[in-house]
């Protein structure tokens, strides 16, 4: 249930040794960074110019890391592409890459910078962690030479990977992750041959790590949480917001609640690219988040989190998301219509009354809604929608969505188009669906792209929001 506030939409998503030192809680930080970009990402620059740009970005990140440490943070996550930006050609990004060794080599670049090939970025990141006694998570590019003995070796003789690195509070490299699910524009990078499930232990919990687009896939995202039982996921991202369902704070908060795990999400900040939205998300909602599409400023977020959420007395129980929806009477509506949310064709039904019960079905998914409005705005139309199918333009994946959303105007053909504000208030609503998976992600988005943390709840094992 939700209190009476304007609702843009709500949706439920479905997608296919240290113990003696352990802490119950820890302070974590994420930094949303307005990246200083190269003048022309498609042009190849000298290694010196590439390093100069990365140092300008690291100057900013170092200030955020220092401030986070001063506020007691044990770990900080910085964004994907946070050192040099995005949309490079394969050749143009090469001067920005460094050869990142396997963490098993037990290396502190800050104190032993000449042990491997020159890596001034790794050295500086290591020193940031060591000098501030904080774990630092950063995203850079890794390069690995290969030759004709490897049949998969690219024609230029090297693999290039979108890579996350983690340095502990002593500056030691403790984790390296190569992004497996590349976004369609990341042609400058190679796919790893196999997905990597990277974890590491700390006195304040077990951590896993992946990057941006990875969150939508079984490997590595679900594997880390469900099979490897991490407590907290580190998530550098360069997330382009897409209303109504894929704004960063909305989906990442929903993912943390659905997977019942902490998610430390650090986004890049670029208004022109619709990139904003970072947060420290928990199984119970957002501990802190930031969304600003108006200014060009970054933001440091710091919050105290449970180190091991599964052991917390407030840890939410597992939910059978389909048990309620399969047991209720269908209130099937005859006046359904089709509408597009970007490329996905939804089945919609207009809410014509100030309260009521509705059911909308598409393929194997039926969505049920019970609601009561307190002041219906005559200039606003709301619909119940269902989608059961493949999503994505190049890489397709199956998802199911039940949604209560506001249409852009009183013209029903605008239902599913982006909307950021609303006037109608709902006293309550209950939204459920006959989902075919246990991986279900609930969220409510208020007017102004604001989350509703702590103001809605899963009703026992009913599978409703």
Structure write-up:
The chain is mainly beta. Helix 1 packs parallel to helix 3. The radius of gyration is 23 Å and the shape is globular.
Summarize the structure.
Helix content is 14%, strand content 34%. It is mainly beta and 465 residues long.
What are the secondary-structure elements, in order, as H or E? EEHEHHEEEEEHEHEEEEEEEEEEEEE
| Mean model confidence by pLDDT | 91
Over all CA atoms, what is the radius of gyration?
23 Å
> What coarse outline follows from CA principal-axis ratios?
globular
For the largest beta-sheet, the strand count, sense and barrel status come to:
10 strands, antiparallel
Pfam families: CN_hydrolase, Vanin_C
Domain CN hydrolase: 40-307
GO molecular function: pantetheine hydrolase activity
Protein name: CN hydrolase domain-containing protein
Give short descriptive properties of this protein.
six-stranded mixed β-sheet; 465 residues; disordered C terminus; mainly beta; single chain; ten-stranded antiparallel β-sheet; 22 strands; 14% helix
Write the layout of secondary structure elements.
Layout: E1 5-15, E2 25-32, H1 47-70, E3 75-77, H2 90-93, H3 120-132, E4 135-145, E5 158-167, E6 173-178, E7 198-202, E8 205-209, H4 218-227, E9 232-237, H5 248-259, E10 262-267, E11 278-282, E12 285-290, E13 299-306, E14 337-341, E15 344-350, E16 355-362, E17 365-375, E18 382-391, E19 397-406, E20 425-433, E21 440-446, E22 450-451
Parallel strand pairs: 2-3, 3-4, 8-9, 9-10
Antiparallel strand pairs: 1-19, 1-20, 1-21, 2-13, 4-5, 5-6, 7-8, 10-11, 11-12, 14-15, 15-18, 16-17, 17-20, 18-19, 21-22
Helix pairs in contact: 1-3
InterPro entries: Biotinidase-like_euk, Biotinidase/VNN, C-N_Hydrolase, C-N_Hydrolase_sf, Vanin_C
Organism: Anser brachyrhynchus
Active site: 80, 179, 212
């Amino acid at each position: 249930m939700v209190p009476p506030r304007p609702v843009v939409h709500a949706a439920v998503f479905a997608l296919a040794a240290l113990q003696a030192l352990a802490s119950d809680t820890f302070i974590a930080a994420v930094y949303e960074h307005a990246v200083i970009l190269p003048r022309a990402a498609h042009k190849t620059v000298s290694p010196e110019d590439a390093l100069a740009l990365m140092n300008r970005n690291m100057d900013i990140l170092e200030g955020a890391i220092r401030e986070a440490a001063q506020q007691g943070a044990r770990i900080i996550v910085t964004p994907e592409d946070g050192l040099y930006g995005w949309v490079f050609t394969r050749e143009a990004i090469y001067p920005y890459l460094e050869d990142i060794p396997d963490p098993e080599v037990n290396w502190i670049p800050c104190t032993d910078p000449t042990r491997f090939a020159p890596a001034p970025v790794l050295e500086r990141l290591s020193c940031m962690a060591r000098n501030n006694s904080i774990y630092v998570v950063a995203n850079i590019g890794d390069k690995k030479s290969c030759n004709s003995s490897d049949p998969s070796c690219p024609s230029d003789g090297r693999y290039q990977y979108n890579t996350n690195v983690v340095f502990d509070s002593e500056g030691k490299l403790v984790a390296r992750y190569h992004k497996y699910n590349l976004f369609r524009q990341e042609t400058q990078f190679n796919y790893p041959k196999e997905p990597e499930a990277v974890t590491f232990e700390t006195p304040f919990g077990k951590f896993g790590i992946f990057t941006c687009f990875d969150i939508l896939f079984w490997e590595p995202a679900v594997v880390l949480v469900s099979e490897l039982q991490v407590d907290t996921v580190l998530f550098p991202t360069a997330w382009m917001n897409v209303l109504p369902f894929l704004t960063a704070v909305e989906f990442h908060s929903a993912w943390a609640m659905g997977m019942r795990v902490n998610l430390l999400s650090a986004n890049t900040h670029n208004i022109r690219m619709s990139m904003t939205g970072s947060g420290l998300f928990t199984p119970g909602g957002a501990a802190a988040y930031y969304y600003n599409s108006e200014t060009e400023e970054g933001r440091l977020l710091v919050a105290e989190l449970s180190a091991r959420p599964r052991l917390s007395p407030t840890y939410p129980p597992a939910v059978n998301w389909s048990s309620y929806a399969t047991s209720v009477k269908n209130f099937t509506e005859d006046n359904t219509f089709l509408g597009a949310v970007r490329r996905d064709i939804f089945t919609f039904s207009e809410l014509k009354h100030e309260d009521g019960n509705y059911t909308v079905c598409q393929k194997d998914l039926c969505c049920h809604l019970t609601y009561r409005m307190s002041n219906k705005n005559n200039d606003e139309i709301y619909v119940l929608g269902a989608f059961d199918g493949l999503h994505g333009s190049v890489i397709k994946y199956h998802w199911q969505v039940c949604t209560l959303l506001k249409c852009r105007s009183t013209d029903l053909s605008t239902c599913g188009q982006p909307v950021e504000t609303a006037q109608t208030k709902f006293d309550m609503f209950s939204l459920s669906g006959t989902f075919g998976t246990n991986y279900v992600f609930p969220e409510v988005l208020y007017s102004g792209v604001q989350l509703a943390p702590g103001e809605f709840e899963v009703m026992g094992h009913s599978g409703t929001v």
